[in-house]
Amino acid sequence: MTDQQLGSRKSYLTDLTDEQWVLVELLLPAAKPSGRPRKVNLREVLNTILYLDRTEYQWDMLPHDLLPKSTAYEYFAAWRDDGTLDDDLG
Predict the structure, then answer these.
(1) 8-to-3, 18, 24, 29, 37 alpha-carbon distances in Å
(2) Would residue 66 count as lying in a domain?
(3) Containing structural domain, residue 77
């Protein structure tokens, strides 16, 4: 991931590689056609969720250079509830 995509933060070992992102991006729900345009970088949402999963940190203990808990958890909860995060691909 380039510095421009990351903003000003350095990458973590848990960040998605470009190759992984190309595959995963296709599995995420598209933005809803009605409503405001999406402003959140979904790759950063996943990087934040993956960091939490790998480190077993609590939501309230996220490093300040990752997305805020409220943003990441909103997507996590929606994807959990709609089945996006299910690991059953068949």
Answers:
(1) 7, 18, 23, 27, 23
(2) yes
(3) 39-84
Per residue in 20-39, pLDDT tens? Answer: 999 999 999 988 888 888 89
Q: Would residue 52 count as lying in a domain?
A: yes
Query: Chain centroid to CA 22: how far?
Result: 13
Number of domains in the chain: 1
Minimal CA–CA distance to 50: which of 83, 18, 82, 12? 12
Residues 46-89 have pLDDT tens digits of: 999 999 999 998 898 999 999 999 999 999 999 999 999 886 54
Tokens 């979904």 -> residue? 42
- How far is it, in rounded angstroms, from Cα 44 to Cα 49? 9
Reported as half-sphere exposure (CB side, CA atoms, 13 A), residue 25 has a value of 11
